[in-house]
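Ligand: copper (II) ion. Inputs:
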Amino acid sequence: MNRRTALLAAALTLTTGLALTACGSSDSAPKLQVDDAYMPQPISSMAAGFMTVKNTGDTADKLTSVTSDLSDDVTIHETVGNKMQEVKSLDIPANGELKLASGGNHLMFMGLKKKPAEGDKVTVELHFATSKPVKVEIPVKASTFDPKKK
Ligand code: CU
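Predicted complex:
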């Protein structure tokens, strides 16, 4: 094989490889599922929401916004040290999960339209960068509820 043929062969291999990758990616999308959602019964005019967003797909996604019947002002917060701050989005890694948990990332509901009590359900719609919106019924738990002590 002379040098030119070798280069050509390499180029062909490369093209085939790319074609396979493109083909394989056609059905890869984030596959999201929401688990363990809860809201501690609010003790003031704000409330927090927690849940785990699982992604069994091969593509990452992002939680970008949240709407709810409970509040017109729902934001996404992360906790840094013992301070929370609003973020534009939170990553949901491919074949991974985004955890919203007490002391960490959470949803923040301000200016509650009503005060939900333990046993109520709060409807939220999660919006993502790639996936279609997902509706979640968040059960309201006692204000002291700790999911680790199930
Ligand atoms: Cu917050």
